[in-house]
Known about the structure:
Largest sheet: none
Number of helices: 14
Helix content: 55-70%
Low-confidence stretches: 1-7, 140-150
Distance between the termini: 83 Å
Radius of gyration: 30 Å
Amino acid sequence: MATADAVDLVSFGSGGGGGGYTVVGFEVVPCSVDHDEAAIKDKKMYDEFSSEAAGGCDPSVVGMRVQANRPLAFSYEVAFLESTIEWPSRWDAYLEMGGAQVHWFSILNSIVVVAFLAAIVLVILLRTVRRDLAQYEDLGSEASPHADEMAGWKLVSGDAFREPGNPVLLCVMVGDGVRILGMGVVTILFAALGFMSPASRGALVTGMLCFYLVLGVAAGYTSVCLWKTVHGDSAGPGSWKSVAWRASFVFPGIGFAVFTALNCVLWYNGSTGAVPFALFVVVILLWFFVSVPLTLLGGLVASRARGLEYPIKTNKIARQVPEWQCSPWLLVAVAGTLPFGTLFIELFFIMSSLWLGRVYYVFGFLLVVLGLLVAVCAEVSVVLTYMGLCVEDWRWWWRSFFASGSVAAYILGYAVYYLVFDLHSLSGPVSAALYVGYSLLMALAVMLATGAVGLAASFWFVYYLFSTVKLD
């Protein structure tokens, strides 16, 4: 029966009680019906006529063959059935979690990967590092039995915190990555708690946009803090402004450029999916009057905070880096397979929701997978950073960022695979342009978020490693 939440009521009978029913679901069955031409000859729109279609319709049976010069009559019949489903539960049929075993398999697979990498990191921290530190402290003279083992990461202590190449770009990318990661975590958390339901159209996208704007403070703060840490005392009092400005324009500018280009394509082709011009202006105003000021505010707060000091002073002359047996960037590319293995099953459901119109509502699983992804990215970056330091390569900044950020390349490759083998309904250059543009933007966002996690984990690992070393 009707409840207080209902908007429209379907009344039956002529009773004046004001009662009625609400539609809590519907099922559409297509049928091919051979109508009597004489019976429908004088019928007009919405006129009633008798038909045998409602008696039993088999969609696989063709009741009427199309012939030349023969008119076609399109009709519909409605049958109301009383149901025990209540109005607040009308979405349960669409929000029913499908493929629960697949989601559990994905999570268990990710847990195994996390445990394996955690064991490796534990061995590095509790066994290898402590053993190396003990040997390093026991080196009292050249005649020490461990003197010949004075190699590896112990020799690059004066170069481990040397300024990386393009430090401004690195700081800006890490700041944007923290912003995107924070937006994803908060959005998925609110969706898992039930605050963003598919019943409210656009609530998820609106929430993501709002959280992204507010987290501009985190982007500015992280970028300027990392900038002050990298430069130390050499950072000028006003240098934080350029870093904060770049943090407020780099990724938002790229995203807005892609969004504008794709929207212009839709405008040119007269598509109804194009964003109206008024909403387009609103997005620009939100960017310049909300996102940019909040990013600058975060940078201002970070500029007045005390920067983190390195535990070891950096040598004036950089140490020569020996040759690797294999390219370190090859290891970086391979490292992205482990984070991708954590999320690729959920990625299939997300892609199906975005491009095939399916409802995705298992945000609890997605929140767990996101946590596992962060753990895998951190562990992969730490292991690869330690491997580089062991071969006396102190250039770990960018490599730690891309060790976990390389998962974006695999996501982009999966997007191509999905386009070729699963997205058969996509047709025309406009649809292909939309798919490619948004896939590139999604891969860039994932690279920034995962790269920020990897760099943060590697930084604290290197800081811990060399803060425990006692230099004479």
